Amino acid sequence: MCGIVGGVAERNISEILIEGLKRLEYRGYDSAGLALINHGQVLRERRVGKVVNLEEAVKSHQVAGTLGIAHTRWATHGKPTETNAHPHISGKVAVVHNGIIENYAELKADLQALGYVFSSQTDTEVVAHLVAEALKTADSLLVAVQSIVSKLKGAYALGIVHADYPDELITVREGSPLVIGVGIGENFIGSDQLALLPITNRFIYLEEGDIARLTRTSIEIYAHGTQAVQRPVKELDATVSNSSKGEYKHYMLKEIYEQPEALQQTISQALNGNALREDFLADAEVNFRNIEQIQIIACGTSYHAGMIAKYWAEQLIDVPCQVEIASEFRYRSPVIINRTLYVCISQSGETADTLAALRDTQKRAAAKGLNIATMTICNVATSSMVRETDHHLLTLAGPEIGVASTKAFTTQLAALMLLLLKIGQVKQRISAEQMTEITDALWHCPKVILDTLQHNAEILRLSELFVEKQHCLFLGRGTHFPIALEGALKLKEISYIHAEGYAAGELKHGPLALVDNDMPVVILAPQDDMLDKLKSNMEEVQARGGELFIFADEQSGITEKDRQHVVNIPSVNTWLAPIVYSIPVQLLSYHVAVLRGTDVDQPRNLAKSVTVE
Ligand code: AGP
């Protein structure tokens, strides 16, 4: 989703802005632009398509300047055209914006009545004109911006420059992420710290409602727009900065292969041999003792992780657990229940729907005086969700750049299991034998995944049989029903093949009608007590001519035959099997997408972090 980079320096920053935009490409976008201030003029370039198009234009027109803002746009209001691309200009003011100005139509009408002419269909352009109008009476750019933000409804992060203020970058955070990168004699802004990592590892994370004024040598921050505050400068360590593709052709493949290590990291923070570390979620013990149920809120892949946790929570520690898609939860006025642990699961920690659901829950619980606790399972330590929940558990997966979630998902599963072990221990609902069994299995998991990755070449061969297909079904039972959903999501989002995931028991309640000679059906068949029932479902598919692609436990007894392809997956403890069975569906989707020639890391129409509704 849209990306912002900006900076104020002594040197020409055009290349820094372009590099920053390239590092945000993973978020998804359809046009790019920048504006630099040079000798009292706003120099602007915008291009539809990839950042390289913008880069060529900037080079060929020799656009340079020491103050500037840049943007990748993911179209919401108005088509992905050059005139809709940011920055938007009003006289000497230039603005880039992430998020949505919900009341832009009425603001636009007011501005048009004052004589402002709009050149785009975007909601953003109103901000440029509002600032220009405010500057007729305000005595500085900062004051002008401070005076207009109260008129804006919605979620936004803004970068604003003015040709007559050549050493001043104003930025606003309200509902969309924004960080300040602190340099030496130069300062920057970015919608994601990744954009700024080549130039600094020192960051200030703005709070909602902050307005900041950056010059080359100073950073002033105003809470709620006007109250001067100091925000801490945080230094990132080198591992967080490791975000290159290395030897891999795509980030997605790299991230699939990083899973053993990512899991090892996530597990190590919580376990000491077969025991939970004493300091692991120690601050949450009182709340865990008190809670009677869990409500998980998440979107997309993170929601699938939550679905698996529901099976685990109820079977393993006897704690009722609900899981719901955040975009539904936030709008259906759910009853907020006393003594509930509300858990947000999110790779980014910035997903608009999940964040809004969390905030709404907190507000409504406070209004009713309810005793709830909130928690985030997240991959980004500095994210809004981590900062706004009572407790958090980090998935130590490292930066995930590919839009398709892979290592974030499997580490979310490991983190959820660790969380449940902790709750189970605090509530004395888990036996010593279970604790030993599951912690042993967790430690063993990275090795089983390494062994599963050995089947990559086999999976590549099978993926060739999907290239011409239009549709595909994924089937699983129990904790592998969510893996079927996740497999279908992975395949559709990166290969653009229509795919559906089903609980195999639902087959004859509808989807069986779709099965014919042309329908590949992917089966997830771990060695568990549902295996015999799953085998019957496989018979039902075969009897209708469907072609089976089965990821089966090596002890399952399922063998290859005509139109039945089998990849043997190493045996794994049943509790943790969904983590391991994620790997073959990720690899299958990856290879099918590569063979179909799609943009694997940045699939069309999608963004890595969905920070608007
Ligand atoms: C899955 O591959 C997607 N990238 C998507 O479904 C993602 O999981 C969803 O947008 C939620 O993102 P989050 O985990 O950052 O909240």
Please describe the topology of this protein.
Blueprint: E1 3-8, H1 14-23, E2 31-38, E3 41-48, H2 51-60, E4 67-73, E5 88-90, E6 93-101, H3 104-113, H4 125-134, H5 141-148, E7 154-162, E8 169-174, E9 179-182, E10 187-190, E11 202-205, E12 210-214, E13 219-223, E14 227-229, E15 234-235, H6 238-241, H7 251-257, H8 259-268, E16 271-272, E17 275-276, H9 285-290, E18 293-298, H10 300-316, E19 321-325, H11 326-329, E20 340-346, H12 352-368, E21 373-378, H13 384-388, E22 391-394, H14 407-426, H15 432-453, H16 456-463, E23 471-476, H17 480-495, E24 498-503, E25 520-525, H18 531-543, E26 547-553, E27 564-569, H19 577-596
Parallel strand pairs: 18-19, 18-20, 20-21, 21-22, 23-24, 23-25, 25-26, 26-27
Antiparallel strand pairs: 1-4, 1-10, 2-3, 2-4, 5-6, 6-7, 7-8, 8-12, 9-10, 9-11, 11-15, 12-13, 13-14, 16-17
Helix pairs in contact: 1-2, 4-5, 8-14, 8-15, 10-14, 10-17, 14-19, 15-19, 16-19, 17-19
The structure holds 2-deoxy-2-amino glucitol-6-phosphate (AGP).
CATH class of the largest domain: Alpha Beta
How many structural domains in the coordinates? 3
User: pLDDT average, as an integer?
Assistant: 94
Unreliable segments (pLDDT under 50, ≥5 consecutive)? none
How many beta strands in the DSSP annotation?
Answer: 27
Radius of gyration: 25 Å
Task: Note the main sheet.
Answer: 8 strands, antiparallel
Q: What hetero molecules are bound to the protein chains?
A: 2-deoxy-2-amino glucitol-6-phosphate
Biggest sheet: strand arrangement? 3-2-4-1-10-9-11-15
Structural class: alpha/beta
Per DSSP, the total helix count is: 19
End-to-end separation: 11 Å
According to CATH, what is the topology of the largest domain?
Answer: Glutamine Phosphoribosylpyrophosphate, subunit 1, domain 1
| The CATH H-level homologous superfamily of the largest domain | Aminohydrolase, N-terminal nucleophile (Ntn) domain
Please tell me what the overall shape is: globular
What share of residues are in beta strands? 15-25%
CATH architecture of the largest domain: 4-Layer Sandwich
